[in-house]
Structures are given as C-alpha cells and as structure tokens.
Amino acid sequence: VEVVIVPDAKAGGELIAAAIGRLLRHKPDALLGVATGSSPLPIYEALTAQVRAGGTDASRARICQLDEYVGLPPGHPESYRSVVLREVVEPLGLTEASFMGPDGSAEDIEGACAAYDRALGEAGGVDLQLLGIGTDGHIGFNEPCSSLASRTRIKTLTEQTRVDNARFFDNDIDQVPHHVITQGIGTILEARHLVLLATGEGKAEAVAQTVEGPVAALVPASALQLHPHATVVVDEAAASKLK
Ligand code: F6R
To answer: Which residues form the active site (predicted)?
Structure first.
C-alpha cells in the first residue's frame, strides 16, 4: 500500500482529483467508483473545480456507486443514489445515463446485488475506486468480519456505523436504515486502482491497522494490502498512529 501524507483534507482532495484528471486524459470514459460520507467531499469539490476551469474533460466519465441503503423510498435525499447524483454526477455536468448503482428498493435484494456485480463486470470493471474508511475499519459497508472474498451483497450495519451516520438523518438513529447493499471486498479488489482518503484523528487507529496491521477480516480495509495498486491518502491527524 502506498501511503501519502498531506497537510489537510483539502490537499488530499486536490491530490486525488488530479489523479482522476490524469486517468480521464488517458481514458476519457473511465469508470470511476465513488464513495459517499464526508471524507470524499473535498475530492468532488476539487474535481468539479478542475472540470469547470476547463482543465479536465469529464464529459465521458462513468460513475458507479459503492454501496446503498436498503429500504429507503426511491428519491429519499439520503439514499446514496440521491447523494451521488447531487454531489458528483450533477456538479460534473453528467446525467443519470452515466451512472450506475445497486437498487436498494428492489423487492429481490439478492437479485439486485448479483445484477450489480454483473453490471460492473460488463461495464469493463472499475478503473479507479474511491474509498473512505469507517472508524471500525470498514470499507464500503463491509463491516468487521466480512469475508475478504465477498461479493456485492446485503449487510447489517453495526450500531457504531448507524451512530456515525445518524448525522445525515437529523441526528435520529431510528431513521438510519439497518441494512445496506455493499460491493463486497472481493468486488472492490477488482478495481484497477484503489484510492482511500482518511482524515481526522477519529480514523487514525483504523488507518494504522489497515496499513501496518495484519490482513484480517476484523479490519476489512486491511484487504488493500492484497491489491497491487492501492493508495491511502491521509492528513496528519489520520496519520498520527502510523509507526
Ligand atoms: C460510504 C462508505 C463508507 C464510508 C465510511 C466513512 O459510501 O462506503 O465506507 O466511506 O463510513 O464515512 P465518512 O467519510 O463519512 O467518515
């Protein structure tokens, strides 16, 4: 795993947006896997600024989702589909046609998971997958003890993750769904380049275990050590527990 320490979240966002810009110059219709949550927001801001300034042409980029809540009504503002459309697809001037994600409101959730896994392969695979990391070391919503070979499937969120995410639901944990669809760790590892951004003291322990600990299902992000091209970008605070 390549570790890059940057002064702050903004610098991390700019560094990663520049890497996405280089990818798009070389492959204009690259499939970009995006994460939600707070960590990647500086990436989307920097990438949008790059596109608006004319430095990057993202008009043929394709965007795909990492995970999704199960059971929110379609169009719910906090469904990850809505979030990605609002924070990534629209600011980049793209349309829903360039976007793919799992259907969290499907009646047949298992079928929707398998269909999404298949669709990613048929789209040629993910060129660059952006990741955040949970305080418990999760990537996507692969919580501790997820199989390192897992495929896209339904998972139950831990209490900790529901507490962490209540801020998006009026700080009311009862509104946070219990279940999610997530790309599996095996699915995530198929992307050609993995780029994880972690910022803030709260991520320091998870980052240290991811990069310096053993590869273990207890720390799902440690699976990045199995990938030939994984980059972890951290600010000083998130790097503070690295040896
Ligand atoms: C979201 C996702 C999660 C988050 C993680 C960190 O699509 O996959 O793994 O990346 O929960 O969330 P933040 O960045 O909000 O701390």
So the answer is: 67, 136, 138, 143
